[in-house]
Design a protein that fits this description.
CATH topology: TIM Barrel
CATH superfamily: Protein of unknown function UPF0759
Order of helices and strands: EHEHEHHHEHEHEEHHEH
Radius of gyration: 18 Å
Number of domains: 1
Structural class: alpha/beta
Oligomer: single chain
Strand order of the largest sheet: 1-2-3-4-5-6-7-8
């Protein structure tokens, strides 16, 4: 263990969603109520990436309920509605609704970044570049993290443009497949964002569900370079959100333990 590490960055570790049925018996009790899950989750993690907002934007009362159930201990990263990233036909009112609905989290200091998760089909074209610029304007004044799934965006000039625009580049860990961005840690703002999807090459394209694509358990040697990169960049960061997406079969639960152990080895107990 490294002694005397100067560490001022806030690190928020969590998973992609918390309402996972296959965590029953692993994190959640067999006979427990689903309404208690978030409270239990909050005993182990200080961040969560909200998936439900991708399908339907929760109202103010729903966000207030999440805040209450989490005991005010969890930062919420909010995934943008699918109409903002996938179909890209959201009406102006929907953006307003999303930004206003999170008011309970904002007031409590528990609002993390908004996450724009673009699909593989969102390639770097003039039209899509214009759309990204428009989306950036919609979230002016907010922390907006952007994940690209197509390799055409994985370029230094894109990250430089995101830096100028004040956007957070989402660093992804993905299978090493043609057409996908390379696994690497990049920083474009004072806030950094990591999404670990797993490296299951067999099911990434062929899997029928997201659960199949994310069926992957990292070993310590695969996670150690990420911790080293975070340590190397920590001086220039105020916050880091590290969200494990490999929630299938509880893989993310095990890998969260490994991440904590690796940080402890580096002299930063979480």
């Amino acid at each position: 263990m490294v002694v005397g590490v100067d560490w001022s960055m806030e690190l928020y570790l969590g998973t992609g969603g918390y309402a996972n049925d296959d965590w029953v018996g692993l994190l959640y009790p067999e006979e427990g109520k689903q309404s208690d899950w978030l409270g239990i989750y909050a005993q182990h993690f200080n961040a969560v990436e909200l998936n439900s907002s991708f399908y339907a934007i929760p109202g103010v009362k729903a966000f207030a309920g999440m805040l209450n159930k989490s005991g005010g201990r969890v930062r919420f990263a909010i995934k943008l509605h699918q109409s903002m990233t996938h179909t890209r036909d959201a009406e102006a009112g929907l953006y307003t609704r999303l930004r206003e609905s999170v008011a309970p989290l904002r007031e409590a200091g528990m609002l993390g970044p908004f996450l724009a998760q673009f699909p593989y089909a969102f390639k770097r074209t003039p039209a899509n570049r214009r759309y990204l610029q428009e989306l950036t304007q919609r979230f002016a004044g907010e922390t907006l993290a952007v994940e690209f799934r197509h390799a055409s965006w994985d370029k230094t000039e894109v990250r430089e443009a995101l830096t100028k625009a004040g956007l957070v580049w989402v660093s992804v860990d993905l299978p090493a497949l043609q057409g996908l961005p390379l696994t690497a840690f990049h920083v474009t703002a004072e806030v950094a964002y990591i999404r670990m999807h797993g490296r299951n090459t067999a099911t990434w394209w062929g899997g029928k569900t997201a659960a199949e694509r994310h069926d992957y358990l990292y070993d310590a040697d695969e996670l150690r370079p990420w911790v080293a990169e975070v340590m190397a960049h920590s001086d220039g960061l105020s916050q880091l959100y590290w969200l494990l997406q490999n929630t299938t079969k509880g893989h993310a639960l095990k890998n969260a333990v490994t991440v904590r152990e690796l940080f402890a080895e580096a002299g930063v107990p979480l």
